[in-house]
Every structure is written in C-alpha cells, then in structure tokens.
C-alpha cells in the first residue's frame, strides 16, 4: 500500500512540473507573440469583410491598419471587452470613408439610410430616428459577429496553450527520465508529463483533500 506522503510528493511534483510548463508557454510570447497568435485568425476573418480594401489616399484607414491594431491588442492580452470596442470603433470609422453601402449588405440594413447616417455623423449633423434605428441594427449585427469571433478565438488560444504545455511537460519528464533518474521507465515519465499540466491548477487542493481524507479515515478507524 502506497504511503500517503509518497502520493502527496508525486502530486506536488507533477503539479510543479505543470506550472513550470505553463510558464514556459507564456515565455514563448517573446518570439513574435508565440502562442498568443493562436485564435486570431477567427478575428481577422470576421473583421475583414467589414473593412474592405480602399485606396483613398494615405490618410484613409486601411484594412491592414485595422487588422494590425487588433492583432497587437490580442497578442498583448487587452481585455476582451476593450478589444471588441476597439474593433467596433475602427469599423465605424470606415462607414465615413465610403464603405456604408458595402457594409449595409453584410448586416441587412438599407444602404442609403446607413450611408446618410454615416455622412451626418462625420459632419455633426442631426441624425433622424430612422437613421438611428439603422445604426442600432448595424451595431447589433456587428457586435454578434465580433462576439462569436472573439469567443472562438479565445477558446482556440486556451486549448492550444494547454496542449502546448502538455507537450513541454512530457518532453521535460522524458529528459529527466533519460539523463537524471534511474529506475524509472519511459512510460512512467510519459504519464507524469501527460498529467502534469492538467494537474497544476488543482494540485494543492488535491493534496489538501487527500491529507484530510486520510486523517478522517484514520480518526474513524481509531
């Protein structure tokens, strides 16, 4: 029968390995964003139709400028709500640069009304209630598109980062088994590496729960 202190040591060591692996994944961000780039493709694909290519001069807000701004925010881990707000603001700027007709088709609103509202917004003119309703409908559709894109991007990033941390933990465990530890088979090291990352966030709670369970059982037995 395994001693509880041995089991606790295994869980703690595996958790520490998982924490270290996650730290290494985070450190990879220094290489052109590293794993932070995972998921941004969803955002790029969602925003591109709302920022068609234009050639109105150097002062125009180009599609590449919007994409690079959003990419920088994504890599730097800006709050999701702020990223979405920035995306909406940049797309709204494009409404005043002749894109109202094309963007209206994406959201199912009247092109002439959206174009009129955008023109008035750029000059500070009074906007009619009908135009306000069209802008609100446009914003609702745009927000839904951005919400889906950012949620899917975040899910892909989190899953990819976890998978990468598992790979790193496995590699470190196998290196330890090969060069530093005697009497441990490679499959045991592989197993430790596989469970290290998932175990890291709960290792302390698991150790405490195990110790409390042992103490409770011993108390009943006594």
Features:
single chain; 222 residues; mainly alpha
Uncertain ranges: none
Shape, principal axes of CA atoms: elongated
The major pleated sheet works out as:
none
Report the average pLDDT across residues.
Answer: 83
SSE layout:
Elements: H1 4-27, H2 40-47, H3 63-75, H4 80-107, H5 111-123, H6 129-179, H7 186-199, H8 203-221
Would you write up a description of this structure?
By secondary structure, this protein is mainly α. It has one domain (4-221). The protein is 77% helix and 0% strand. The protein has eight helices and no strands. Helix 1 (4-27) runs antiparallel to helix 8 (203-221), helix 3 (63-75) runs antiparallel to helix 4 and helix 5 crosses helix 6 (129-179). It is elongated. The two termini are 19 Å apart.
């Amino acid at each position: 029968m395994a001693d509880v202190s041995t089991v606790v040591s295994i869980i703690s060591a595996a958790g520490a390995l998982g924490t270290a692996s996650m730290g290494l994944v985070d450190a990879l961000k220094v290489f052109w964003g590293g794993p932070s780039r995972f998921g941004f493709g969803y955002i790029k694909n969602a925003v591109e139709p709302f920022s068609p290519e234009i050639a109105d001069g150097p002062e125009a807000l180009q599609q590449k400028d919007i994409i690079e701004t959003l990419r920088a925010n994504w890599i730097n881990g800006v709050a999701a709500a702020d990223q979405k707000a920035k995306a909406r603001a940049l797309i709204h700027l494009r409404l005043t640069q002749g894109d109202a007709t094309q963007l209206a088709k994406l959201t199912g609103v009247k092109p002439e009304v959206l174009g009129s509202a955008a023109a008035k917004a750029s000059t500070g003119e009074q906007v009619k209630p009908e135009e306000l309703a069209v802008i609100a409908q446009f914003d609702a559709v745009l927000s839904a598109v951005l919400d889906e894109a950012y949620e899917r991007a975040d899910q892909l990033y989190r899953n990819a980062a976890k998978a990468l941390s598992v790979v790193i933990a496995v590699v470190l465990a196998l290196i330890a088994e090969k060069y530093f530890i005697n009497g441990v088979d490679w499959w045991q090291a592989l197993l430790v590496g596989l469970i290290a990352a998932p175990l890291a966030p709960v290792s302390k709670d698991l150790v405490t729960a195990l110790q409390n369970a042992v103490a409770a059982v011993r108390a009943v037995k006594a």
